[in-house]
Design a protein that fits this description.
The complex is a heterodimer. Chain A has helices spanning 15-25, 67-79, 92-100, and strands spanning 7-11, 29-36, 39-45, 53-57, 84-89, 105-112, 118-123, 129-134. Chain A is α/β, with parallel strands linked by helices. In chain A, the strands form two sheets. A four-stranded mixed sheet of chain A has the order 1-4-3-2, with helices on one face. The longest helix of chain A has 13 residues, at 67-79. By secondary structure, chain B is mostly helical. Chain B has one domain: Homeodomain-like (Arc Repressor Mutant, subunit A), CATH 1.10.10. Helices cover 55% and strands 0% of the residues of chain B. Chain B contains six helices and no strands. The radius of gyration of chain B is 19 Å and the shape is elongated. Classes of the chains: A alpha/beta, B mainly alpha. Chain A binds chain B through residues 71, 74-75, 78-80, 105-109, 114, 123, 127, and chain B through 12, 15-17, 19-20, 22-24, 26-27, 30-31, 60-61, 79, 82-83.
């Protein structure tokens, strides 16, 4: 078998704000952008790594999601307990410095964790936690 | 159940905005718990009366902001103690106030989980157990 991890999905509530975060703050390229209004599906990813993407998608639009479930998902996103992703970089301090100069919510400055990694964390505009780990 | 209407949509949108404010408060605790920080300061940061912030925070996250802050500090104190690092005073709590037995101690061994930061049921210092994890 030859399987790669190709795309992971994070929800957005304001597609333009999410694109601005991943493109302008994290420096990702925008690969596809389909749909309109709030119903947009946008793939982004780091330049030079075309095989791995994040799909920014509208949340809870599967017709099988009930209205109650949809409300719960939106509330969890708003309170910051829904989506999250783990990214990595060799230059954690430089990345943190560059990202925090943007208009972003910092959750954690670069910190040595007791479980043996060093990382920092931000919120994307939809409330997803974006944790960035140091490669070493 | 809320019927779809403009009023309802406005209320739902306001609720999401309120939750996002609480998220920023919680993130601020995560970011700054090792510094001097209290509920008054957290409330000032989001322009809410402290009592209102506390109520809303508990509804959203199941515990008062002060309890969340205390738990984060206790967690940090335990980590520092396990590592044997000095400087737990930075967290604003002494390790003794956090737990005299640590999570590997009797409280867990008997299956009685005690939230981090709460007082131990009985003094049962077992410092030699710290660092065994």
């Amino acid at each position: 078998m030859d399987i790669t991890i190709h795309t992971t999905v994070l929800p957005h509530v304001d597609p333009d704000a999410s694109v601005a975060f991943y493109r302008d703050v994290l420096g990702f390229e925008v690969r596809t952008d389909v749909g309109q209004g709030k119903m947009r599906w946008i793939t982004v990813g780091p330049a030079g790594q075309p095989d791995t993407s994040i799909l920014l998608a509208p949340p809870a639009v599967d017709p099988g999601v009930t209205e109650d479930e949809r409300r719960t998902i939106l509330e969890m996103m708003a309170k910051g307990t829904y989506g999250w992703i783990l990214l990595a970089t060799r230059d954690l301090d430089g990345t943190f410095e560059r990202v925090q100069t943007g208009d972003v919510e910092v959750v954690q400055e670069p910190t040595e964790q007791p479980y043996g990694v060093r990382d920092c964390a931000f919120r994307d505009p939809a409330g997803n936690l974006v944790r960035i780990q140091e490669l070493r | 159940m809320c019927q779809p209407s403009w009023g309802c949509a406005r209320a739902a949108a306001q609720r999401l905005r309120d939750l996002a404010v609480l998220r920023r408060v919680r993130d601020r605790i995560d970011r700054e718990y090792a510094r001097p920080l209290d509920v008054e300061a957290l409330a000032r940061g989001v322009h809410l009366p402290a009592g209102q912030l506390s109520r809303q925070f508990r509804l959203a996250y199941g515990k008062l902001p002060y309890a969340y802050l205390k738990a984060r500090r206790a967690e940090r104190a335990m980590v520092l103690r396990w590592r044997g690092e000095p400087g737990v005073a930075l967290t604003g709590r002494s390790p003794a106030a956090v737990s005299s037995s640590g999570p590997a101690g009797p409280a867990r061994a008997t299956g009685k989980r005690r939230p981090a930061g709460s007082a131990p049921a009985r003094p049962s210092a077992a410092p030699e157990r710290a660092g065994m994890r």
